[in-house]
Amino acid sequence: MKELRIGMIGYGFMGKTHSNAYVQAPNFFQSEHKPVLKALCARNLEKAKPFAENWGYESIETDWRALLKRDDIDAVDICTPNNLHKEIAIEAAKAGKMILCEKPLAMNTAEGEEMVAAVEKAGVPNMVWYNYRRVPAVSLAKQILDSGKLGRIFHYRANFLQDWTINADVPQGGAATWRLDVDAAGSGVTGDLLAHCIDTALWLNGSITDVTAMTETFVKERMHAETGKKTPVEIDDACSFLCHFKNGSLGLFESTRYARGHKALYTFEINGENASIRWDLHDLHRLEYFDHADESIVRGWRSIHVSDGDQPYMGNWWVPGLQIGYEHSFTHQVADFLKSLDTGEPAHPSFRDALETQRVCDAVLTSAKKRSWENV
Ligand code: SOE
């Protein structure tokens, strides 16, 4: 058994999901590699301590450069706000560390290109945490699509809806609300939420060739948590776009943080010549499937409860009929990363895969600004 000694940078919501996945994966998935929570890195020692104790990190660093110098760290997990991804990833690659980076890969395509060049030059294993690919029902959708059951694809439709920024008193900047600060996040819902939808879409339905988008910022000024001053909001609060896929199908994507009543509703639907598929994060273990070849008197949408041992990942869990949830998408991502180390095959989505998502995000934002169609 080889140890995979993890240095985690950041301890927010994603720090928790990833830490949990490192602990859980080896208990359920076989690998020659076993994650060890070696060090947690965060600027604020007092805040880092309870997190490190809770999850069992062996040590704490308050400077990520010091973490990268350590010989007892094999892999760095970047869970910081987006504006730090590039610098840390490039330095980590130079230090020969494997890198697992939170999504989106970067603030923009130019940064992403530098990051891809760095990891490919260093030859270090790398992966980006687009976790929804690893929800078993979504992986099953991929299996069904790859089998050709849907036939020619006509439509791909996806939504990611939230409502947590409707209140104009929510600040921008700071530890909890950096996602509203363009300097920390790079963009709003496009990089934060649509990036998930785009990653899944590229994986399931192939490349996007061109896009046309609209964005809106509903609350124009918010107090900045760091300065205490009201400052213009420069992120997109909502974004919708149309696109063409290379396979000839049409895409329709919508994301917002202003859909009252929706906390985190990610859905997609794919319509093919022979069959359709749809999925809903709030019912994440179910895949809806309609097959036109069914006998007409019983034809209709079937709801596949993805919990059988033959279905993706499920053979590693309980017994058929008993389901799993959101956290397991991260556990599966760790399990797949460990498997990639066992086999020497690259893990996905790699930095290069995630760069493609970044390119689509940039084209979407440019198109919204110029009110144009943009090639990706
Ligand atoms: C934002 O609220 C957020 O936490 C995203 O940053 C995550 O990537 C998404 O999965 C859930 O929503």
UniProtKB/TrEMBL annotation:
Domain Gfo/Idh/MocA-like oxidoreductase N-terminal, chain residue ranges per copy: 4-128
Keywords: Oxidoreductase
Keyword Cell division in annotation: no
InterPro entries documented for this protein: Gfo/Idh/MocA-like_OxRdtase_N, Gfo/Idh/MocA_oxidrdct_glycsds, GFO_IDH_MocA-like_dom, NAD(P)-bd_dom_sf
MF annotations from Gene Ontology: glucose-fructose oxidoreductase activity; nucleotide binding
Keyword hit for Lipid biosynthesis: no
EC number: 1.1.99.28
The protein's name: Glucose--fructose oxidoreductase
Gene that produces this protein: gfo_8
